[in-house]
Amino acid sequence: MDQQVGKQSLRFTKAPFILESASMGGKKEGEGPIGHQIDVVGEDDRFGCDKWEEAESTLQKEALTLAMGKAGVKPEQIRYLYAGDLLGQTIATSFGLLDFEIPLFGVYGACSTAGESLGLASMAVAAGYADLAAVVTSSHFASAEKQFRFPLEYANQRPLCSTWTVTGSGAFLLCNEDFLRKREKKPQGRGVRITGITTGKIVDYGVRDSMNMGAAMAPAAADCIYSHLKDFQRDPSYYDKIITGDLGAVGQEILIELLRQRNVDISGNHTDCGLEIFDNEEQGTGSGGSGCGCSAVTLSAHFLPKLRSGELKRILFVPTGALLSKISFNEGQNVPGIAHAVVIESEG
């Protein structure tokens, strides 16, 4: 069977398993609707560190350590590590994962990094380039605000369309069938595989408001989902859930409308990680959550358990990213978006 499907997609003949995962969250995330499902929630957002960037590095380090502990594997067993964050030169990743001494592919896809990293790791495992690979992504509200917007001390008023950067990290271990078969310790519940991916394109609708990430990213999500359904010749109903990463309430409305204009209706089975992780009204998070950690934490803590239990059979996971920097924004450039789709299915 040809693994190349359509123009942008892959269908894996040897689909990799998600062996284990782990999630870390901040205090606000722990108070949200899925807070009780997050593996470790910090008492505050510093995680014992003096600097926000160090705190984010700690999130990545602890998330990967926890995932390896759950799976009973050691760093030397991991062939490749795919990881990234929102900070310049991905410094949360560089300093957080330094001591593991695992060959690293540093990944930057803005808030879509979890989807991009899972896609790349899946390709490596499915092709036989790695028996075991790891994926780690993170974001931190304070470090992201410091880099992209205003110092926290500025206490600026946030518009209702803005999203709240999630303080959190998600780590995933992907393996092939041979690696899983040789193990004495098996994952609890049903096996979960990544059976295909659709790599997204950069999409620019001319949005320039850096406080409205949902509007900037929704066109890219619509393009990626439409391309995925076309490549695989599937209807949206094929999936129990189509899950975007970071659009929030504003972006969700735009996404559904853009797809309806293409005669695709996902309103019945769409949700967004940014809407799952926070209660917007109770927690004052504006339109919802965003950041590299948003989709990673929500997938690990909330959706993977549903796949392992059989409550969900098949999901399309579509993290979304806004490709801006302080320089591009200050120079008046648009905010292009990108999204990457990952097909995740439970066995049985």
TrEMBL record:
MF terms in GO: acyltransferase activity
Signal peptide interval: none
UniProt-listed InterPro entries: SpoVAD, SpoVAD_sf, Thiolase-like
Pfam family, one: SpoVAD
Residue stretches in coiled coil: none
Official protein name in the record: Stage V sporulation protein AD
Organism encoding this protein: Candidatus Eubacterium avistercoris
